[in-house]
Amino acid sequence: MPAFYRTRKLRSQVALLIVGIIICFYFIIIILNSLDWGVEDDLLYNIAEDIPIGTREYPILLWWTPFTGESGAFKRCGKEICFFTEQRKYFTDDLTKAILFYGSSFSPTDLPLPRMPYHDWALLHEESPKNNYLFSMEKVMKLFNHTATFRRESDLPLTLQYLQSLDSLKSKKFFVPTAVKSLKSKELAPVVYVQTDCNTPSERDSYVEELAKHIPVDSYGKCLQNKELPPGLTDAASSFNSEAFFFILSQYKFNLAFENAVCRDYITEKLWRPLEIGSVPIYYGSPAVEDWLPNPESAILAKNFASPKHLAEHLLRLKADDEAYERHLEHKILNKISNKRLIEGTAYREWGVNNDLTKPNFIDSFECLVCKRVAENYRREQKGQKRKKYQATMEHYGCPEPVSPFTLEPDSSSWWLELYNKAKFEAAALEKLLNRGANFSATEFFQEVINLLENNASQ
Ligand SMILES: *[C@@H]1O[C@H](CO)[C@@H](O)[C@H](O)[C@H]1NC(C)=O
Ligand SMILES: *[C@@H]1O[C@H](CO)[C@@H](O)[C@H](O)[C@H]1NC(C)=O
Fold it and tell me: What does each of the 459 residues of the chain score in pLDDT, given as a tens digit?
């Protein structure tokens, strides 16, 4: 075949190939667009703004404690649609089927009353009882139908709310090898503490103060401070969350990870941060924290030591024994995470952490949980069927009374124990007034609390 024909044939083949590629791309794009990505279905989006009362058939969910800043919007949750609003004028609307509360703002003297039989109450509270002791009381928890708290037993468990991902636990971005940490020990203490909130229900500062008598502790925060931040890191509030600071913390063998309150499953970045940067956390907080650790030895638990002195002695031994020390860092050194509960907990949570745009945040997830349940019950009601029952219990939050970190007994001189006990009487007064089935004033409420306190004192 003459060369002339060969190049012509080649040219037409190339042209065909290019046309083919373009057509393929076109189809791939069409197919990708038509695919249902799963997540999308659950993402919320606004359908319309503030439609007048009476022109709609969807349940209204009223945020009683202003939280989302939303005056009113329809949102889709899977197959269901609900109207979410913060405007209290909707309280008397027949379609208002659920009232949503943010725990820190929940107040017995400002409640949506009278409560109708079809008014579900829903509680979002990811915080510890430091903000509000009422949820430690069974009488208060029983008022709610739906919950999202740190407890694994709640309807939407937020236990892993401060953990970015499993990869962040394995990442070596901030990791400092043991030999380098040992070299640093000339300038740095073996243990570091960073806290800006010094007066807490867990009384962590008094424990750390005692611990520091037996092992050197560097403290950068406001609490028990004995070390200055390096130049350039002077503004504590922003520095403590900066990568530059994480590079400092990761040079320490041990990071104190003490929660502000001791509650089952109340676990914060205090635990996850040392795990992420590759320092060993000394943990005090959730009594069931073992259930969530990457590996059984990933943290050293203060509760396993008879006293701060015993803990200090153990840390001093570990500090001098690299092999024993590194057994606590398997997630970093061996890239190993063996805890199935933790693996599944991060895999199946439907909300994202830190503006993860591929998933809704947990506030959206909470709104949708309530919307789906309430919308289903509304349909059942319309069909003359019985509504499904939803009832929160102590297991949905239920933190125990605050105790001394030394004796693990209530400490009668503690201000937090006083707050806890006050909440007991408030819960009792609330129950009594709610049982009347009518609205009550703040004065009536406080009078009832005083009556109960006086009765108690005279007994
Ligand atoms: C309950 O009563 C107080 C005053 O006694 C009033 O300000 C409040 O709006 C009432 N709440 C409801 C939901 O009716
Ligand atoms: C919601 O909780 C209240 C108070 O316990 C209860 O009376 C009501 O029946 C519950 N609603 C549902 C739908 O279970």
Answer: 455 555 566 677 777 777 777 776 666 665 655 444 433 344 444 454 555 555 568 999 999 998 888 888 889 998 899 999 999 999 999 999 999 999 999 999 999 999 999 999 999 999 999 989 999 999 999 999 999 999 999 999 999 999 999 999 999 999 999 999 999 988 999 999 999 899 999 999 999 999 999 999 999 989 999 998 887 776 666 778 889 999 999 999 999 999 999 999 999 999 999 999 999 999 999 999 999 999 999 999 999 999 999 999 999 999 999 999 999 999 999 999 999 999 999 998 989 887 777 888 999 999 999 999 999 999 999 999 999 999 999 999 989 999 999 999 999 999 999 999 999 999 999 999 999 988 999 999 999 999 999 999 887
Domains of the chain, residue spans: 1-35, 39-160+350-399, 166-347, 412-459
CA atoms of 397 and 261, how far apart (whole Å): 13
203 lines ligand 2 (CB under 6 A): no
Whole-structure pTM value:
0.86
Which residue minimizes the CA distance to atom 14 of ligand 2?
389
Alpha helices in 320-414 (DSSP H): 322-326, 330-333, 340-348, 362-382
**Residue in 96, 145, 373, 386 to alter for ligand 2 test, most ligand atoms within 8 A of Cβ:** 145
Q: From the CA of 141, how far away is ligand 2's center (Å)?
A: 12
Atom of ligand 1 at shortest distance to CA of 439? 1
Contacts for 360 with CB less than 8 Å, ≥ 6 apart:
42, 43, 44, 350, 351, 352, 368
> Given ligand 2 and candidates 369, 389, 434, which is best to mutate, with the most ligand atoms within 8 Å of its CB?
389
Q: Supply the CATH classification number for the domain 166-347.
A: 3.40.50.11660
Whether ligand 1 lies within 6 angstroms of the CB of 441 is answered as: yes
| CA–centroid distance, residue 439 to ligand 1 (Å) | 6
Give yes or no for residue 340 CB within 6 A of ligand 2: no
> Two tokens at 71?
């005056």
Taking CA atoms, 151 is separated from 22, 128, 146, 313, 420, in Å, by 53, 11, 13, 33, 19
d(CA 70, CA 58): 17
109 by DSSP, 3-state: which?
coil
Atom of ligand 2 nearest to the CA of 377: 13
Q: How far apart are CA 104 and CA 83, in angstroms?
A: 23
391 lines ligand 1 (CB under 6 A): no
